[in-house]
Amino acid sequence: MNVSDIRKLMETMAQTGLTEFEWSTESEKIRFERKPALAPVMGESHADPAALLQALSHLGSLNAPATAPAAAPVAAVEEVEPSEPVGQLVTSPVVGIFYAAPSPDSDPFVKVGSSVEKGAPLCIIEAMKLMNEVTSPWSGIILDILVENGQRVEYGQPLFRIGGV
Q1: Can you tell me the distance from the alpha carbon of 93 to that of 132, in angstroms, rounded to the nearest whole number?
Q2: In the chain, how long is the greatest CA-to-CA distance?
Q3: Under CATH, which number does the domain 88-163 receive?
Q4: 108: which DSSP letter?
Q5: Is the predicted pLDDT of residue 70 greater than 50, yes or no?
């Protein structure tokens, strides 16, 4: 695998929204992992598996000489007006269960419209019997709470949208 092939894989990941990719042969192994710029809202997916397969179709010939043509078709990018409210997403740092309050009989840490300071607790995510407090990375206003109390969340899943950052 040459530098040109690696660069094309990285560009394809960015274009399709893929955050992880691993490829191995008997003699080579490569793994890419990146953090998304803005994590997609639940139910949305920016990754296009068909475009990824098409763009990576040249991988079968990676052991060929560097002069072999390895041009991968690039999916057309369509500009779409953002339909989401402005603000920054706070994503889950771990896989676990989302809790909006410190205990079942307590008020939630924050509500939509709450003003938060940087470092203020937003929620707790229970992972492997450990309670992980998620704090606000910015000062601002809670625009959206994107998950329900008691819901299972994945790593990188959007939890809150904070505006006025």
Answers
A1: 9
A2: 67
A3: 2.40.50.100
A4: P
A5: no
Strands (E) across 56-150 are located at 88-91, 96-99, 115-116, 121-127, 130-135, 140-145
Is the distance from CB of 14 to CB of 21 less than 8 angstroms?
no
Banded pLDDT at 35 (limits 50, 70, 90): low
Q: What is the Cα Rg of the chain in Å?
A: 20
CB 138 within 8 A of CB 114: no
Which pTM value belongs to this model?
0.49
DSSP string covering 16-70: HT--EEEEE-SS-EEEEE---SSPPPTT-----HHHHHHHTGGGGGTTS-TTS--
Q: Where in the chain is the domain with CATH 2.40.50.100?
A: 88-163
